[in-house]
Each structure stands twice: as C-alpha cells, then as structure tokens.
Amino acid sequence: MPKPNWSRALPQPICILDDGKEFLRLTTLADVRGFLKHLPRERRQSYTWHVAVRRLEAAAVGGNVDDLLTALQMAFQLERIEYR
Length: 84
Hints:
The chain contains four helices and two strands. The protein is α+β, with helices and mostly antiparallel strands. The model has no long low-confidence stretch (mean pLDDT 95).
C-alpha cells in the first residue's frame, strides 16, 4: 500500500463559514484531516463522518479526491455546516 500523501492539494479550497464569514480554509488533505479530528466525538461517530474519513484515507493514497469532496458536502449539509 502506498504511503499517504497528506500534503495533496484539494482541487479548490473549502471555506467553512461562521455567520457567512470565512472561519476556516481547507486546502490540503492534511487540513481536512485536522478538521475531522477536531469535530466533537459524538459527531465523529456518525456514519456520515465515517464515510468522509474513509474517503479521506483513500484520497491520501492516490484515490479520487472528488469522492472525498462529495462525502464532505453531504456531511456539511446534514450537519448544517456552512461552507463554500
């Protein structure tokens, strides 16, 4: 299995918003990993976030980043996290 490349860039940044203003900018897989690690434990245990983590791990070893972005978008919408 290839070594994970956490410095791999996202095709475009994901901006997490707070009251419509940029709160956090995710530009690499490492940024996404850090964001996921800082979610409250109860939230991280949901199926939706488990899917996002699996897609993140796959992207880090050369998988499709679009699969990760789709999983994140679904999780953001379900959790009502503002993003762009």
